[in-house]
Amino acid sequence: MANPAEAAAITVLPKAALFPEPRPRWLRWLAIAAVTGSVGGLVWLLWWLFLRTPPRSYVLDLSPSASQYAITDQKTPLLNWEISHPRQVDTLILRTLTADGALVGEPREYDLSGSLPVELLAYCQQTRQRLTCQNVPTDLLEPGQYRFELTLLPRAVLNQAPMQASSSLVTITDLPTPIALELAPQQVIYSEAGTQVTPNTPNLAPPVTQGGIQVSWIVTHPEALQDLLLVVREPGGTSLGGRRFTFRSSQNSSRVTIPEELKSFCRLGDTLICEGVPTGMTEVGKYQFELTPIPVNMGDEDFPTAKVSEVVEIQPRPVRIAAFTINGREAEPKYLVPVDQGQPIPGFRIGWRVEGGSTTKVELLPSPGNVDLEGVLPLPLTPAGTTTLTLRVTDGQNPPLIRAVTIETFDPTPNTPVIVNPGNQGQSGQSTPRPTQPTPQPPTTPPATRPTRPNGDLPGSSLQDSQAEDETPSNLPEDLRNPEPDDLNLKF
């Protein structure tokens, strides 16, 4: 070689530097994935910019803040609306129409092509997905009924049709709006009609009168009042009925007069005050009342907010077992009745008398079941066994009152006498003596003990006569103690 240095360099250079090893296979796949992702991203971007159909904008809500306004309140109607995808909208157009559809004044236009217009900054909030506006003022000051129409004009490049939405009717009157300030019952708890309240029953509420629950109310601005609507409901539930009181006569609709059915309870001045108005609700249950003032020139479909009373309850009349008898005498808890073989079974008649109201339910168990508040029935017995009859009384709300009687029948001579055959006599002519049978004893039953009653007996419990300590305990009434055979025939 011409240059010895080059020869030495060639000799020293390693073989790997002249022939490099191939790259790892995973690097190839990584490069392929990067190229594919770049191409896919470019395709998606082109689709997003040029081929994708943008979402449409819709009016999700358009409603007035209130349905009733008065000129004397110096307030114009306020509007709320909500729009989806506001960036697709170029212009908002707000029109005011009469109830017949005629245009009122000039439409308002709001430019949404850029940021929010200045006149909406105080009332609206905008995001990518929503434009929400609250209490946007209008310029209506004339009495009448109106509705509002909102039109969305999409951007021209979208080539989409306009979207429209209409609000409910808004009423503007030249009189102030009447408002129910108060609605209160005379009392929140009544007792059922006919309940006797005495010094011995201080916890009972006064009974409801024939006119039913009474309510009182106060309504402002009665000069603008057309009707009063009084509705009664179950608490938070179904309507049970209602009445509409008209304060405008057909002869002179411009004058406010108290209707005849309210003249005894109401007085008219700067406010309408009514006290103790009967509602006719007399049945046991719970009730809630609603009072709605209806202004003049207002349709039934746009009632203002009602005033709701607290819950009123009519409690059932307390029940009392006034009488529970066996054969006309006050029933004892248990009876023992002897019945000789072949003799008729003594007859018993059970009677009862219960004091209560419309919800009182009386049962004789196990049969016949439901009975009237007062009655007498025969009580069939078995020749030997136990019969228990229970009187159960309830008012539908409180724990029931229970009285029970048990009648046990038994055979006082259960063993058949032994008769000796006359042919088996001894040679002396004397007969074999008849074996003596033991005298049968009635089954022993411990005397019934009366349960100890706390202070303040249940209604009817005072009718149970307690036995004196020196009195001989017995499970039989006087007409069944030590009976003669002929006295046990109690058939009816």
Total domain count:
4
CATH structural class of the largest domain = Mainly Beta
Largest sheet, in brief, is: 6 strands, mixed
Q: Detail the poorly predicted runs.
A: 422-492
Taking Cα atoms only, what radius of gyration do you get, to the nearest Å? 48 Å
Layout of helices and strands, plus pairs?
Blueprint: H1 4-12, H2 15-18, H3 25-51, E1 59-64, E2 68-70, E3 78-84, E4 89-98, E5 103-111, E6 124-126, E7 130-137, E8 144-154, E9 163-166, E10 170-173, E11 180-185, E12 189-191, E13 214-220, E14 225-233, E15 239-246, E16 266-268, E17 271-278, E18 285-295, E19 307-308, E20 312-315, E21 320-326, E22 329-330, E23 334-338, E24 348-355, E25 361-365, E26 369-371, E27 374-379, E28 385-394, E29 401-410
Parallel strand pairs: 2-10, 12-20, 23-29
Antiparallel strand pairs: 1-3, 3-7, 4-5, 4-8, 6-7, 8-9, 8-10, 11-13, 13-17, 14-15, 14-18, 16-17, 18-19, 18-20, 21-22, 21-24, 24-27, 25-26, 25-28, 28-29
